[in-house]
Amino acid sequence: MAWSNQSVVTEFILRGLSSSLELQIFYFLFFSVVYAATVLGNLLIVVTIASEPHLHSPMYFLLGNLSFIDMSLASFATPKMIADFLSEHKVISFEGCMTQIFFLHLLGGAEIVLLISMAFDRYVAICKPLRYLTIMSRRMCVGLVILSWIVGIFHALSQLAFTVNLPFCGPNEVDSFFCDLPLVIKLACVDTYILGVFMVSTSGMIALVCFILLVISYTIILVIVRQHSSGGSSKVLSTCSAHFTVVTLFFGPCIFIYVWPFTNFPIDKVLSVFYTIFTPLLNPVIYTLRNKDVKYSMRKLSINEIGIVKKT
């Protein structure tokens, strides 16, 4: 896809989170710590799952891929935002802006499919336990992960195909810390109502429908667990509640922003920070705090590393 377009605008100005110098210094320190914790937390989960044989199961395979996507989602715009806190001119090129839009929708689309896959995994594990390993075979798991990336790529290209050739000939200030599609298309010099409707149908409504389906699926799972209550039901409830918490944290802000792209709300910027920075941070926290197997494996991994360091 060519980057050339009909616009006079070659760069966009990002307004960021605040114009206050004191707040920008605070944000620089705060988000630097949050970003480091996000990357290290998700990386630790990926390394732990890859290195511990007893975590080589379908659920943890999908969880490891979710952590990789979260790590990437936190990295597509956050490093530039942190650097911009120390810069007077918060500028991004037209190509850089389109790249941010592409990766946001690529990773968002991939995560939606992966969260649906994780719900399917829990449904099979609870409702069809005897056929679990047959249905959730390694081939199936790899196929679900590949499908998530294919869907993400097609979704990102569908959003970018109409945006990249829009004429931008006047205003170039984006009221956010990154190029979010609803904010960027409003700067075009043509009527973007049809594009906005397309965005609602391909991003907002898809996110809303997927969220409703996931709520229904987890409700069915919880009802089945209660009907067949046993000694392992508390572990199942803990796992499902962790999955549902992550689903809510991810879909909530996305639905709010993309179902109403024609209207700007003061809370939009807060929600953008939440689903691009805080949700990827909270995911490893939620899964490690609620999952004894992951916590045990992390402790084992850290003890082994400390032992290796002492020997050297």
Automatic annotation (TrEMBL):
This is Olfactory receptor. It comes from the Eukaryota. Keywords: Cell membrane, Disulfide bond, G-protein coupled receptor, Membrane, Olfaction, Receptor, Sensory transduction, Transducer, Transmembrane, Transmembrane helix. Residues 41-287 form the G-protein coupled receptors family 1 profile domain. GO terms for molecular function: G protein-coupled receptor activity; olfactory receptor activity. Belongs to the G-protein coupled receptor 1 family. It is found in: Cell membrane; Membrane. The chain crosses the membrane at residues 25-47, 59-78, 98-120, 141-162, 193-224, 236-260, 272-289. GO terms for cellular component: plasma membrane. Pfam families: 7tm_4. It is a multi-pass membrane protein. InterPro entries: GPCR_Rhodpsn, GPCR_Rhodpsn_7TM, Olfact_rcpt, Olfactory_Receptors. The keyword Metal-binding does not apply. SUPFAM superfamilies: Family A G protein-coupled receptor-like (SSF81321).
